[in-house]
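Now for our target.
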Amino acid sequence: MNIKRKELTRIIESIPTFSKPKVYFEQYVLPGNVASRLLWIAETVYGDISNNIIIDLGCGTGRLSVGAALLGAEYIISVDVDFDAVALFKNVLYSDIFPKVSSKIDIVCADVRFFNIVNREKISSNRKVIVIQNPPFGVHRKGYDVLFLSKALELAHIVYTLHKSSTKDYVINYIENKKFVVTELFKESIRIPMMYSFHRKRFHKVNIVALRCERRNY
């Protein structure tokens, strides 16, 4: 790993935000320091990124995907249903900014409900499949936080996921019932700027929790 966390945060923060965020998809930008913290723990504490297969569900403009590539992931599949977000991510990825990571990332415009890994048997037995995701909170589309989580647990051996702190107990219980072991990594407060017509404050604070989920007997 040839990058320091401060530099990782700076690069992630430089990735453009949504030009016209869509409330239907609960789009907001994950702050660079939170994204880098999650990725840094995944790599330096657990060794879950370098040389492994990473899936970024609801990738948005690609902050987690690019960060994972910079930390040495072998291959990243970035999935988002929003064509505009995917187009923005592609423009950034194939610019001169990230020449060393674009070859590692495939961007898929798809609904996560119907996404699956084709030719899973071709994945080397010594490579782990890891989902790292920042899913919708399920506020405007009730249940979509669990929908993303369910798909992540279906796809991967290990899942890193962010959720509203107020839903932590429910989410952990759901994960454990799927026969995964849950580790709480950290809590964080993020500030979402005034983005939508119903916002009344310049910033809205949301308390989130980062979880690591590992399949039992893996």
Observations:
- The radius of gyration is 16 Å.
- The chain has a mean pLDDT of 87.
